[in-house]
Write a structure and sequence with these properties.
The chain is mostly beta strands and about 100 residues long. The protein has one helix and ten strands, in the order ββββαββββββ. The strands form three sheets. Strands 1-10-7-5-6 form a five-stranded mixed sheet, with no helix packed on it.
């Protein structure tokens, strides 16, 4: 995973397990299930009660941003037809941007 620190200060604790990322042992996202044929951007914020929420509209302060690149495929010609098979999400291509939470 590519990690970007947006500003100075303490960042939210996070962990990864396969294609899942967990923030503060509270909010878990399965990034493979959110992968699309186009880039996907996910905002993680605190709401007014400092509960973690997905989406800036529901949030008051940014905690993190997750950017998943568009789904990749392998192509194979079978009986003169091109067969496209999705490649599993490579977490090394996902960008996690972290904001200070103080």
């Amino acid at each position: 995973m590519i990690i970007i620190e947006k500003n100075e200060g303490t960042k939210i604790p996070y962990s990864t397990n396969g294609t899942k990322v967990t923030f503060n042992d509270d909010l878990t996202l399965n990034l493979a299930s959110r992968e699309q044929d186009w880039p996907v951007h996910i905002d993680i914020c605190y709401d007014e009660d400092r509960a973690l929420v997905i989406g800036a509209a529901a949030g008051r302060a940014y905690v993190a941003e997750v950017d998943i690149p568009e789904r990749q495929y392998t192509e194979e010609t079978i009986d003169e037809e091109i067969q496209r098979t999705p490649v599993p999400l490579n977490m090394e291509t996902v960008t996690l941007s972290l904001w200070a939470i103080e």
